Amino acid sequence: MKLQPKIAIYIRTAIHGKDSRQTLKAQEAACRKFIDSQLPELASVKGTISVYQDLGHSAMDMKRPGLKKLLVDLKNMQMRTIITTDMIRLFRRPQDAATLQRTLSELNVTALAVDGSILGSNPPVTERMAVL
Questions:
Q1: CA-to-CA dists, residue 23 to 45, 108, 113, angstroms
Q2: Contacts of 84 (CB under 8 A, 6+ apart)
Q3: Is the dihedral of CA 58, 6, 69, 107 positive or negative?
Q4: Measured in Å, how far apart are the chain's first and last C-alpha atoms?
């Protein structure tokens, strides 16, 4: 039986060039390190993490293939947490932040950023996160 992912990692870079793949790898590594330190009970379970990425897409609109797939999967799967390096990976415009906040709250999903930002509802607070 295949386990459904419980955590989504979202990574994005607006640039589609030579160093872009390295940038995405660094973002993913930072998110995984955050998960290992802040959500260790989920990090060790096989199949709990899915990675969504947008290479060469600006956050100035929500029309990004990786983000669209993430939002569809949030509605269809049991994911309750999105991890990203910082919220500007997800959005830059205030109206997009408001739209995403509303969507995440309706789905009971929380977005956590490595930089300490939180968006959505019901953040999974652990003792380690309480000191952030």
A1: 26, 30, 16
A2: 9, 10, 11, 27, 31, 90, 111, 112, 113, 114
A3: negative
A4: 36
- Which structure tokens are listed for 111? 């977005």
Instruction: Return the structure tokens found at 49.
Output: 């993490």
Angle at 77 between CA 76 and CA 80, to 5 degrees: 120
Rounded CA-CA distance 93/16 in Å is: 21
Both tokens of residue 46?
């096989």
Give pLDDT tens digits for 68-87: 999 999 988 778 899 999 99
Which 3 state secondary structure label does DSSP give 7? strand
Local structure of residue 2 (DSSP, 8 states): P
Answer for the pair 77, 5: CB distance below 8 angstroms, yes or no: yes
Kindly report the number of other CB atoms within 10 A of residue 76's CB atom. 9
Distance CA 123, CA 65 (A): 26
- Candidates 80, 89, 52, 50; CA nearest to 68 is 52
Q: Is the pTM of this model over 0.70?
A: yes
